[in-house]
Amino acid sequence: MKNVLPGIKQNNFVVVGRVGMDLFPAPGVATQDATTFTADMGGSSANIAAGIVKLGGKASLVTSVSDDAVGRFCVNKLHHYGVDTSHVSAVAGEARNSLALYESRVADHQSVIYRNGAADFEMTVADVEAVDYSQFGALVTAGTVFAAEPSRAASFRAFELARTAGLPVIFDVDYRPYSWPSPQVAEDVLSKAGALADVIVGNDEEFGFMAGDKEKGLSKARALAASTAAIVVYKMGEHGAITIAGGTEIRTGIYPVTALKPTGAGDSFMAGLLSSLAAGNDLETAVLRGSACAAIVVAKPGCAPAMPTPQDLSQFLADHSGPTSFA
Predict the structure, then answer these.
(1) Is 144 helix (H, G, I), strand (E, B) or coil?
(2) Cα-Cα-Cα-Cα dihedral of 274, 287, 267, 255, to 10°?
(3) How many domains does the chain have?
(4) Does the N-terminal peptide bond of residue 305 adopt cis geometry, omega within 30 degrees of 0?
(5) pTM over 0.90
(6) CB of 8 within 8 A of CB of 139?
(7) Is 157 part of any domain?
């Protein structure tokens, strides 16, 4: 089990996975009633990368985009957020960038995701082999990269190359059923990816899914921490999180806010966690700062544009009464 902190403390991440376009109407407006939409960047991996950069780190995205106006929009947005695009390749043909339409409201919230023939699933082994992993401190990815070929084989190859180069592998389980051919395939592949990761972040349902039973999710997280992973974060929504590392368990609460939407929290949590560890904070502080970043994002429209800067995070922590006690 490797010490992941030296790599993370370089604060320079290679992030594997999708970038897409988000469309969202004004706060409180239902999609079917909207006449205008704001367009911005989406996709879990791209959001994590943007969050890291906004918090002062460096991130380079490895993915494929469609060779069309939407793909170019996504690349332009990556540039806008300061994410390196040296390893973003355009693919021709019928592949298209993913599109998410979601609402800035909690009651009756609707999210509509278009992932048919997704361009990011066209990422190849050659794409990930073109990366010089020695230039980075750690690799980060989210589970959707494993949902289809050739992206699945490419992502496992990226894990292999990163580990060979001495980089810790950081894995957000991020199970999205609509991306997978079947739950059985997802369970098998995500479990395999989890066994290869040094840092694993997921919620209780995702760990339960990997274990084949939600009631066994925490046991699965503990087993991974006891065998292959250096850090496992088991998130439980409003009930906080259990972080398992070095034979100990840290239990933390959340920062309650009036949520504007339910999307973007996990990506912001990951960016906040990694940025805080990179800054030298202890693990409990890093988890709490990740939780604060998640709270900030759900209280604002959009995902990437809602990611906090260090000043935003400091102000939030100064103004907030503090995290809840672990429930």
Answers:
(1) helix
(2) -140
(3) 1
(4) no
(5) yes
(6) no
(7) yes
- Please give the Cα distance from 326 to 252 (Å, whole number): 5
Range of the domain at 234: 5-19+44-62+124-312
pLDDT (0 to 100) of residue 214: 83
pLDDT digits over 46-80, tens only? 999 999 999 999 999 999 999 999 999 999 999 99
- According to DSSP, the β-strands at 20-24 and 38-42 are antiparallel
- The residue written with tokens 């332009």 in the block is 76
Token digits of residue 326 = 């672990």
Q: Across the beta sheet with 58-66, what order do the strands follow?
A: 84-91, 58-66, 12-16, 138-142, 169-172, 199-203, 231-235, 241-245, 248-252
CATH number of the domain that residue 243 is part of: 3.40.1190.20
Per-residue pLDDT reduced to its tens digit, 134-190: 999 999 999 999 999 999 999 999 999 999 999 999 999 999 998 999 999 999 999
Q: Is residue 81 part of a domain?
A: no
* H helix intervals, 139-282: 151-164, 183-195, 204-211, 217-227, 265-278
